Amino acid sequence: MTADTLRETADALIAATNAFDPDAALTLFTPEAVIDDPSTGHRFDGHPGIHDYITRYFIGYHTVTRFLSIESISETQARVRVDFTGDFGHEIGLLDISVNADGLITRIDADLE
Of 17, 79, 103, 107, most Cβ neighbours within 10 A? Predict the structure, then answer.
C-alpha cells in the first residue's frame, strides 16, 4: 500500500459520492466495512449501512465533496480533509480512511472540523 493508493481510493470515493452513485461507492468497501460519523449521530455497518449513509447524506442533501488534502497515518490509513457543500450549507470534514491489503476500505471515521 502506498500514499498514492490511498489517494486514489479517496479520489474514487469522492467521485462516486459526487456522482450520487452509492453502488459505485460500495465497490470500494469490504462487505463488513464501517462508517462511524458522530456528526450524524450514527454508525453505518456493512454495505447496507454504507448505502444508507450515502443515500441519506450525499444524495439527500445534494452534497458535493472537494478534496483538500491527505495526510498519511500509516501504510493502510490516511486522514483526508474535504470540503462539503450542499443543501445544508458548507462544512469542512475529516475522513480517516483505513484500507485492507487489497486496497478496499474497511473503516471510515468521519467528522467535521
Answer: 17
